[in-house]
Amino acid sequence: MTELAFSSVFVPDGELKRQAAYRERVRLLLAKRYLEPPLCHLHTFGCQGNVNDGEKLRGMLAEMGYGFTDRKEEAGLILYNTCAVREHAEDRVFGLIGELKRLKRARPDLVIGLCGCMIQQKAVAEKIQKSYPYVDLLFGTHELHRLPELLYEVLSGQKKVLSIPDSDGMIAENLPVRRENSFAAGVSIMYGCNNFCSYCIVPYVRGRERSRRKEDILREVSELADTGYHEIMLLGQNVNSYGKTLSEPTDFPTLLREINEIPGDFWVRFMTSHPKDATEALIDAMADCGKVCKSLHLPVQSGSDKVLRDMNRGYTKEDYLKIIRYAKKRMPEMTLSTDIIVGFPTETEADFADTLSLVREAGFDNAYTFLYSRRAGTRAAEWEDVFSPEEKQDRFSRLLNLLREIGENRYTPLVGQTKRVLVEGKDNRKDKLLSGRTAENVIVEFAGDPALIGSFVQVRVDAALSWAARGTLVE
Ligand code: 5AD
Ligand code: SF4
To answer: Considering its fold, how many domains does the chain have in total?
Structure first.
């Protein structure tokens, strides 16, 4: 593969101003056309990075005069911000677009738009144009900041608009943002990916790796801390390669240390780290910085060196174990989570056994498990499976069983301890309880006043459940 050496390219100020002018044009057009502000039904699929994009879409739409609704039936604009990582996510969107045909027939002035990773794939955009001709607006990942202009074209001309340029990607600073939550915020620090893991569509739909300027990130985090945010999640496909594309190169451990110096009572988390770039310097920065949560998400994907090589991951099982051993030595209280793919095309039973043995050895506190999903255009998509679909399913259940077994008593050591918890909301399962998280990312349930949502509290852990700790609020 050729050397990928790009620098961060920023959307010029002139273009950002042009889009701001379009926001105003859309606002005036809507005000003339409708008595009440029209409503947008915006739904984002996929990762936290996409959620962060969704917050920018929401910010731009709010400035253009849109209100928001969960109900499609009352929306004047339906916009799906899509994900392409696995086929299942795409199928859901296809299903939803199919359902919109009826609404569009009843209300021809309804605007239907699709954007995000799924749309950045040429074949998908073509399929949508052909099979769902009532979709008005399709735009790719590199066009997010141009939503005002594209929407203006749809609204003023009542014509279909398609904008999916091939691009290495740029960075658009200072877009309006409407955050989903008033105490925990995602802050993108870099975009794109250069790793080309052989199963992954992301490098094709998100463009080349590019980092935001450090001063822009520090300013955003300071503003969030000043407005009372208690959790900052630093986001990127591979945060560990932060800084390489800047004119003044820097690195992620340095960024963490500088963020840690920002005044305020907040926790810092980050995702996702690539094990091949997870250095001792990163672990040292985590250990040294009081605001950085001692919880590491380090996707391993497989425990077999052969599969890791076929996946183009750039590390071995031993490399992985080495860095987590160092991390646990530096931070004994640290929790570790991971992603695992089952059924990669070249995975034999012996390779899968290596994954099971890694799971036993690594002591993951949490693992997100995925069935391999073939993504057209990636290298692995061309390889035949060396196992049957039944074997793939069987491996998946065996992995889940092992994780369940290992996880069974993971919270028992917390019983009797009092932990600082950020209260996130009402508990999904038991409405009377509140639910929050410790710095180590352990879910804690306890009885309390919903007014506490968004604040830090102290909770004494009384019991360990299999998925969470149960406790009592300490005054
Ligand atoms: N099939 C299954 N899982 C995938 N992931 C990425 N691409 C695929 C794919 N083609 C998983 C990886 C990654 C997580 C975000 O999604 O485990 O870490
Ligand atoms: Fe995909 Fe690998 Fe990049 Fe993660 S690091 S987004 S798995 S290519």
So the answer is: 4
